[in-house]
Amino acid sequence: MNGRVFVDSNVWLYAFAINDPERMSLAQGFINKNVASGSLFVSWQIINEVGYNLLKKGVADRVAFEMVERIRISCTVVDFSAELLSRAFELRQNHSLSYWDSLVVSAAQEADCEILASEDMQNCKLFGRLVIRNIFKKS
């Protein structure tokens, strides 16, 4: 992958999930490949969702913090803005996205990403030049 890649919270959670070794391996491989190329992006929303879900699953605070800190350090973090929010509402209206998914897509577009890695959204769906890719789906 040569372009910019935005990674949804579900991919990060699988990267940390020892109870699903196959998906963990796929997620870690995908993330490591894109970290090496410096093309990985997330938003504060993604970092917050990962932290919340880790704590909800019983991960100790310190460990959860170290995990989300790894995400923050290895990615470019897209800041929230009025423009991002406005575009999210437009996306929600035009594409029947959930509120939270519209914020994710809007952040990926803000970062000028070509790929949004997500298991939760429709694989291969296009939003301009941004395409959703489910890295766990066999082609």
Q: Averaged pLDDT, please?
A: 94
In the predicted model, the low-confidence regions spanning at least 5 consecutive residues are none
Q: What is the CATH architecture term?
A: 3-Layer(aba) Sandwich
**Main pleated sheet:** 6 strands, mixed
Number of strands: 6
Number of helices: 6
What is the N-to-C succession of helices and strands? EHHEHHEHHEEE
CA-atom Rg in angstroms: 14 Å
Total tally of structural domains: 1
CATH H-level name... which superfamily?
5'-nuclease
* Strand order, sheet with most strands: 3-2-1-4-6-5
How helix-rich are the residues, as a percent range?
40-55%
Q: Between the first and last Cα atoms, what is the distance in angstroms? A: 16 Å
Strand content: 5-15%
What sort of overall outline do the alpha carbons produce when their principal axes are compared? globular
Q: What is the CATH topology assignment?
A: Rossmann fold
The computed structural class is: alpha/beta
Q: Which CATH top level class fits? A: Alpha Beta
Described by its quaternary structure, the protein is single chain
